[in-house]
Amino acid sequence: MRLLTKVSLIAATVLTLSACNKEAEQPKPLVLDTDTAKQSYSLGVSAGRFIDTTIQEHEKLGLPLVSETIVRGIQDQLAGKAQLTEEEVQKVMMALEQTAREKQVEVAKAQAEQNVAAGKAFLETNAKKEGVKVTESGLQYEVVQAADGPKPAATDVVRVHYTGTLVDGTEFDSSKERGPAQFPLNQVIKGWTEGVQLMSVGSKFKFTIPSDLAYGERDMGTIPANSVLVFDVELLGIGEEAPAEEAPAEAK
């Protein structure tokens, strides 16, 4: 999370000057006709966007910040009239960062617990759908398009097309535009290693992978902790063939 302590002095200065111009009774018309003007304005926009985003991030954690007071603090500092000593400022900012970290942990924990419940409900419902089979490990799969080709072993390199989504339908990755993915089957998540071995070359399967066969409690950025993952996979071939991209990051 980006905290206010990371705002540079230059960005803060630009923001202050912009605020002062806005408050003036007769602001000078802004003309962006030189590289210097455009660079200066862009820096101000960047600083304003940064602070706005920071305020929003803190609000999500239940830590409201006031933009007007932030600007006033910048103005007072530049005028040499800061109402808090440097020691006091550092103490307050350290406390804010600590509180923000603690809030982030709380939010992540709550979200992870919600994902467990949502994933369990999704798996129970999906398992009852016609055509869905469940393996001993809990992996769910559906044969979308059958084929009579060979099946890979866990030690084989496979080539696939795939699309991965969360249970709410959010797509987090796809090979459709980048081209086929190629990787050793035993170097990806358990759900992939087990599931793709059930496929024949030329077939298309839909896998619903419980979180314990995916990333478990790990948060993988676009994939929250304890997420059930859904993959549409087409097995194109077995054995290395160049060119092809490496294993999808979401399957490692």
Automatic annotation (TrEMBL):
Task: Recite the UniProt keywords alphabetically.
Answer: Coiled coil, Isomerase, Rotamase, Signal
Molecular function (Gene Ontology), one example:
peptidyl-prolyl cis-trans isomerase activity
Q: Which residues form the signal peptide?
A: 1-19
| The UniProt record lists the keyword Coiled coil | yes
Note whether Transmembrane helix occurs among the keywords. Answer: no
The residues forming a coiled coil are 82-113
Indicate the enzyme's highest-level EC class.
isomerase
By its UniProt entry, which Pfam families does this protein fall under?
FKBP_C, FKBP_N
Q: Which domain of life is it from?
A: Bacteria
Q: Where is the PPIase FKBP-type domain?
A: 155-239
Per the UniProt record, which EC number(s) apply here? 5.2.1.8
Catalysed conversion reaction: [protein]-peptidylproline (omega=180) = [protein]-peptidylproline (omega=0)
- Give the record's family classification: Belongs to the FKBP-type PPIase family.
Q: What is this protein called?
A: Peptidyl-prolyl cis-trans isomerase
Organism annotation: Rheinheimera soli
